[in-house]
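Title: Request for sanity check on NtaA/DmoA family FMN-dependent monooxygenase prediction

Description:
We are preparing a figure and want to confirm that the structure record we downloaded matches what your pipeline produces today. Could someone re-run it with the sequence below and paste the raw structure tokens into this thread? We only need the token string, no images.
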Amino acid sequence: MSSSPRRVHLAAHFPGVNNTTIWSDPRSESHIAVDSFIHMAQTAERGLMDFLFLAEGLRLREMNGKICDLDVMGRPDTLTVLSAVAAATERIGLAGTLTATFHEPYELARQFATLDHLSGGRAAWNVVTSPDAFTGENFRRGGYLPYPRRYQRAEDFIDAARQLWESWPASAQDADETAGAYEHHSEFFDISGRFDVPRSPQVHPVIFQAGDSDSGREFAAGSADVIFTRHSELEDGKAFYKDTKGRLAKYGRAEDDLRIYPGVSYVLGDTDADAAERAREQAYAQHSGATAIATLERVWNTDLSSFDPDGPLPDFDPVLDGPEVSQGRVKHVKDPVATAQRWREIAQAENLSIHDLVVREAPGVAFVGSADTVARQMNQYIQERAADGFILIPTVVPGGLDEFVDSVVPRLQEMGVYPDSYAEEDPTLRTTMELGGYRPATEWSRARSTARAAATNGQEA
Ligand SMILES: Cc1cc2nc3c(=O)[nH]c(=O)nc-3n(C[C@H](O)[C@H](O)[C@H](O)COP(=O)(O)O)c2cc1C
């Protein structure tokens, strides 16, 4: 007996400060002007996507003590941008990344409840646990929380925020003098008072998380609705999907209660061969010689500006004990010495310069091909449980998504795995994402306590 196919979900990433964004493309426009954000959000909405996603960086990146000006620099405030987008759109969800490390629950709960009201229930919060003391200097706290404690704070933060979001009765008309009253006394937050924003349409905005470690995955399973991940290759995606979904049952959750959306890039062409050629050109447009050197510097953790991008790789190992040369950027290379060794071996075996090696080793474009090929491949990921949806990362702002919406979306619709309209009964993001209603704060925390007690008993037995 064959069951009906799982549907494909799509969302749009407003590309930011990474070298994958080709700001030198003649079609590229402002990354700050409101029109750019609105253009991309309206395109995503035309493509019936779930949400527009904004990442966050709270300090200008530096390289070797200087501003890193090879990529797009500067990023306006997420919630302000999303409020502007809310006014120019009707259905697209508004997903903003904000750190639980430096902000306070009352402050963020209030801002997200407001966004949820302004947008008629379209707010989502990507909870990140910002990694560095460099960013923290902006918040008077430097690197005040060691790495494992950041997830503990984030979990406590969401519990507090959820309590605030629930603190008003379902209808503001029913408000009595208990409206907004809350108390949250915990290790990280000792707060009480009255929350001043009435209950918003979704009550809890959709909660995303983006960490990849074991603690990050556990945090997602116990506290989040969605994971934004870099696992965008089919087999790796399946392994990640299985691992994270396998953590849900102990928290009393089902497979579809946590959605996995890899961030994916794509290159389209009239034919597969045409797309492959465009992908090759794009890789060199994304990586100038100077960008290739900077990529190496992040692995070697030392100044390599005297190296020729067209020459060989350094023959020494990365510096492990020196200060970080790259500041303000999430570190994705876990073992620099092993990476450097592997890169040297590849470069030697294939006779590659630094520039060629960096292009070869750049995270692959997940989907390259004609619209038909890309639609079929995306569907395969969904049916084989390598993802529940995709966050598309265009390379050109703001028009890079249009081509996808005009060519791939109709193919997915013809295949019967993508809707022809947004759900009519309810405009909230939870409904668009098929997530169901919010789960009360007490249920989240009770489920985590039960899971932890069971784990402790298991260890003792
Ligand atoms: C795909 C992905 C996207 C992320 N985006 C952001 C971001 O926009 N802003 C930020 O401050 N941190 C971001 N992070 C950092 C995470 O919140 C986290 O601090 C970091 O990955 C370390 O946690 P981990 O060891 O569990 O991965 C991102 C991480 C991943 C994996």
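Thanks, this matches our download. The pocket of flavin mononucleotide is lined by residues 55-56, 97, 99, 128-131, 210-213, 215-216, 228-230, 263, 330 (CB under 6 Å).
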